[in-house]
């Protein structure tokens, strides 16, 4: 179908504009610099025009100027001359130019027609899938959806302004500097003061890695942050957590919001007052702009396509992935380090493209037990360089053995409020440091350590 579309004369195009661009460049070589950032050879509808423009680019890339004689000679040498209509057609291009100075306007028309054709191709790809109605239709749609979404995102990107004046950049920067001067937080708040003091909030376009050993509470910390952003700040966010069922995920969030003991709930020992808190929490969460991507582990490129859709449909301003090691590439190369680097790079590109912070959880082994101070470091991450390479912020959630706050040693482990350390080892936006936190295993709630101490001392 794509080959048929290529030669379909009903597709959007403007032959006169294409001719005018080429003629303008041949007459006045300076016009090439005016259009080279706007159009590429593939943007021309007629193959002959695409070959002529391609040849012009090749000639000028060698530092030579283009005129009609040189162009005809180069087209002939490449075997293109007859395919583009011969020397007479080149002469016609020059003679029919309305005004060489209008080349930039002509190029914009050609670019717009190209984008319209690409949209038609994407639509026809969807139509073609729909026409293949068989038992494998659902699988076919799922396999092709990410490709179509990526095509549409590329079209959207191609219409954006790639060159920004310093004047506009200074205006944007002033807004950030003004917030610093007024001591206003620049990024999204985590809801935990001790973290925000170091990070100044989670910045748009940042890839943030939150790592810990299994069972330390990194998922709980991520969900605490999500609840604060969605419920308290009313910012739209997305969560991808394929290792948990929807019921498990929502139950954990309800317990965090209501601060009800999970053990009491499982044993049916919830009081009437606690039930009231649960219903209040469910009501708040139901009104929060929080969206859960509920699919099994999928390739990173397919995940990126789905996140782009969430951004388009729901305007998400923050996204959480739990966790990095569940992501994989389309093709199993057998080179795990290279795959991890590719995944990390794609997540960073996604954060930049969507201009949102992306928080990605990651596991690390028990190698920190062999450190003298038992404190985890970047090298403890699995394939640490591949993950850290594209990350803007790297954080480790850590608890020293036997460390606790406000509980007696004889109480069960699940009843203790644990003193935690969030060790920020990389921060492209500011300083590194350690945030002191408290984690209540009963409710899954994280608080600032000072606040927890104040509560316990009352």
Which descriptors would you attach to this protein?
single chain; 458 residues; alpha/beta; nine-stranded mixed β-sheet
Short description:
This protein is of the alpha/beta class.
Topology:
Elements: H1 2-6, H2 15-27, H3 31-35, H4 47-61, H5 68-77, H6 86-95, H7 103-131, H8 137-158, H9 166-181, H10 193-199, E1 207-212, H11 218-232, E2 237-240, H12 246-258, H13 262-267, H14 272-286, E3 290-293, H15 300-314, E4 318-321, H16 336-354, E5 358-363, H17 384-388, E6 393-398, E7 417-427, E8 433-440, E9 445-448, H18 449-457
Parallel strand pairs: 1-5, 1-6, 2-3, 2-4, 4-5
Antiparallel strand pairs: 6-7, 7-8, 8-9
Task: Describe what this molecule looks like in 3D.
- The longest helix has 29 residues, at 103-131.
- With 458 residues, the protein is α/β, with parallel strands linked by helices.
- It has 18 helices and nine strands.
- The model is unreliable at 1-6, 403-411 and 451-458 (pLDDT under 50).
- Strands 3-2-4-5-1-6-7-8-9 form a nine-stranded mixed β-sheet, with helices on both faces.
- It is elongated.
Nearest-integer average pLDDT: 79
Largest sheet entry: 9 strands, mixed
DSSP strand (E) fraction? 5-15%
Rg is 29 Å
Kindly, what is the distance between the CA atoms of the first and last residues, rounded to a whole number of angstroms? Answer: 73 Å
| Number of H- or I-type helical stretches | 18
Helix content: 40-55%
Helix and strand string, N-terminal first?
A: HHHHHHHHHHEHEHHHEHEHEHEEEEH
Helix/strand/pairing category? alpha/beta
* Poorly predicted ranges: 1-6, 403-411, 451-458
For the biggest β-sheet, the strand order reads: 3-2-4-5-1-6-7-8-9
Q: Strand tally, please?
A: 9
Shape: elongated
